[in-house]
Amino acid sequence: MPRSILHRSASALMLFALCLALGAVRAGAQSTTQGAIGGAVKDPKGAVVQGANVTVKNEETNKEATATTDDEGRFRVVQLDPGNYTVTVAASGFGNYTQSKVVVEVGRVTSLDIPLSVGGATESVTVTSEAPVINTTQQDFSTNVNQTSINELPINGRRWSNFALLTPGANPDGSFGLISFRGISGLLNNNTVDGGDNNQAFFAEERGRTRISYVVSQAAIREFQVNTSNYSAEYGRAAGGAVNAVTKSGTNEFHGSGFYYQRNNRWGARNPLATKQVQLASGAFDVVGIKPQDVRHQFGGTIGGPIKKDKAFFFFSYDQQKRNFPGLSIFSQPDFLNRVDKCLLTAPRGSTVTVAQCPVYPGFAPTIPDPRSTGNLKRGEGLTDAQVSDALGFLASISGEVPRRGDQRLILPKVDWNINSQNTLSVVYNRLRWESPAGIQTQATNTRARDNFGDDFVNVDSFTPRLTSTISSTLLNEFRFQYGRDNEFEFSQPALPGEPTTSPISGRSPQVFITNGFSFGAPEFLDRVAFPDEKRWQFADTMTWTRGSHTFKYGGDFNHVNDAINNLRFLAGEFNYTGGTNSAGYYGGLNDFIVDYENFKSGLT
Which of 163, 399, 477, 592 fits a 20 to 30 Å CA distance from 381? Predict the structure, then answer.
């Protein structure tokens, strides 16, 4: 194909793509951080009023923005921070019009139909500070969760993004804190805070993942929007939903808050699965119910106000959690240690034993057909009763309560500066530190030994400045930058007494897995050569041009993540005792381990 034709084709494709991009956003005025006010101005007979001056004033900071109605009487003021506004309209030959308590929400246009009266009279209209219930101006399927809902609705754990479950089309995705929109995997969503990406790229979850309580304090969130379908390309990078939050800012008045929450299982019933096995003098094991402690303290507060009235403002949030929730290492069945065929283990090696000679060991109650019901069995290992009891006692010793904590600290300072009437700068920093010894496994009970849980640590930092500039009454620009780091590092725990430590990791035991029962040693996913340590640089710039009832948006978003991770599994090695159905049903793995226990006592090579 000639070069000139290729050049014209490329130009046409670029023009077509630009038209699609402009057409896709001309009907809305959404923003990841701000909202808008728009509508029409008419005279008493319903005719449009051209050239009317519209002034929009933030009631909390006194920041103003202006617009002029077009030849159809329409106006739109974009890039407004969420909050309450006073709208004033003035036109030659008409009385002034003032409407207060106009609510602006993130990602939405608040519509107004303004009637003007003839003459010099001044008309004042007061409305309640409530957001519109139905969104009739935009094509997206979105729901806004405002400050009232965040403050007053109950929530377990104070993870603010869980309020998204109250929106249509949202459901829990599994039991680990993920949210599915429209039935799509919870790993395909996008989460932003103050316009900055709040995702952990490797695992496709929120920063810090879902083992931590949250990465941004609920007390610091002003409101957020949940977009489930037909949302703007500006949100992007999501096949599921886009959750878009903004943090609080300071105002011309000082405001503060404080909170303390406690959750304590002292006031609840015992978990029926919380049991431990105690060895009796006979060698059998008794199942005893226990109730480990589980108490969580969450406390902190916020403060915000003016640095210089009408000019600069600050906001600060502090949030801390101290949780003591010991884990509980149990076996797959409460009587697991009694499911041992002693007769087969103590018979001479290689001997033939009949069913009549080998009755079921007391306490063994298989829930599946017993393979000993017919024929002879050949499985003698010649172990003494003392050796069998020794092996079972070892397994019992590495089960039970696991000291486990989950402590975190969060701070969020924010500064907003009205540089001049054309430029506003907002800077926010969020810092999280999470420490959780034995906290990788967060379940109340687990079939992992006391050294098989793993220690969990998370450090998250994000720094997000944003500059909003008014180029003209119809042309505005927003520039955002973010540097973020999500560093998650985990370690295995030292071997318990009686475990072999001749593994590639000093002081650790290889993982030992007993089918249908138990595992101990270094977990299969630890230790890692390199931990997830994501560093993110994000640059975004958006130009907004309003013309009558239409809004055109165009710009770009550069999002670079640098991560070095080596996720090699089974670094410490693993021994599997699969058993089968030779002896104690599907619990033959336990018999196999008992036979090999003497090797473990002397150390593996």
Answer: 399
* SS3 of residue 154 by DSSP: coil
CB 438 within 8 A of CB 329: no
Spatial distance between the Cα atoms of 553 and 534, rounded to a whole number of angstroms? 30
Residue at token pair 């949250």: 214
Sign of CA dihedral 211, 212, 216, 218: positive
Most confident of 39-53, 281-295, 458-472: 458-472
Dist CA 31 CA 33 (whole Å): 5
**Nearest to residue 206, comparing CAs of 176, 228, 231, 183?**
176
Q: Which of 287, 412, 402 is nearest to 337 (CA)?
A: 287
> In terms of residues, how long is the chain?
605
How is residue 222 written in tokens? 């002003």
**What is the number of other CB atoms lying within 10 angstroms of the CB of residue 12?**
10
Specify the amino acid at residue 67.
Answer: A
- Which regions of 396-523 does DSSP assign to beta strands (E)? 400-402, 405-418, 423-436, 455-470, 475-491, 511-514, 518-520
Read off the DSSP letter of residue 245: E
First to last CA, the chain: 69
Measuring CA to CA, which residue among 76, 77, 66, 80 is closest to residue 35? Answer: 80
Measure the CA–CA gap between 205 and 174, rounded to whole angstroms: 13
43-83 tens-digit pLDDT? 888 889 998 999 999 999 999 998 888 888 899 888 899 99
Most confident segment among 64-73, 309-318, 392-401, 546-555: 309-318
**Helices 588-602 and 385-397, interaxial angle, to 10°?**
90
Q: Are 403 and 370 in contact (CB under 8 A)?
A: no
CB atoms within 10 A of CB 353: 18
Q: What is the pTM of this model?
A: 0.83
Task: State how far the Cα of 305 lies from the Cα of 313, in Å rounded to an integer.
Answer: 6
- Taking the CB of residue 128, how many other CB atoms lie within 10 A of it? 6
368: its two tokens:
């599946």
The DSSP bridge partners found for residue 435 are 407, 457
Distance between CA atoms of residues 518 and 329, nearest Å: 9
pLDDT of residue 588: 61
Structure confidence by residue, pLDDT tens digits, 128-154: 545 555 555 555 567 888 888 898 888
- Determine what percent of the chain is predicted with pLDDT higher than 90: 34
CA distance 301 to 482: 25
Question: What does the pLDDT average to over 162-168?
Answer: 88
CA-to-CA distance for 89 and 74, rounded, in angstroms?
12
